[in-house]
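Hello again, I could really use a second opinion on something today. I've been staring at a protein lately and its backbone has me curious. You're getting the sequence in one-letter code plus the fold written as tokens. I'd be grateful if you could look everything over and explain what you see. No rush at all, and the record is pasted right below:
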Amino acid sequence: MIPLATKTASNSGENRKRRGPRQNNFEIEELFGKQFHSNVELGKPDEQLVMLAKGVVEVIAGSRDINQLSPWLSEDLYLRLRDRAAVASAQRGQRGERPSRPSFELASVKYQSPQDGVVESVVLLRGVTRVRAVTVRLEGYNGRWRAVNLSVL
């Protein structure tokens, strides 16, 4: 009978070679974490601000799926917006309303950059019955502008 495994120098762990030094958390974060970019690298955020403002109002109204905006939202903002849309959907259900696509035209876009790689803005959307102000804070990381904070007034 041939034994299935024997303890030899080659499989006992005594002669195993180390594959190199282990990386600490700082090195891992530096390689795989957020890679921040400057305003010049990312370009002007005008079109993205308008797209986000209209998209968020449509998500809350129930006419757009939040997953369509996910590439431009931070994880925390995505989760908060998802929860807000769920509350709005439940309220519409209690009133017996169906989701409808809001009709807005762009009234104005104002933004400033308090530091490189950060944009703070206000987008005004004019609807049939009211004007909505959407405030957006963008940070440039991993090759694109991403919204990290947003409010709809």
Notes: Confidence is low (pLDDT under 50) at residues 1-10.
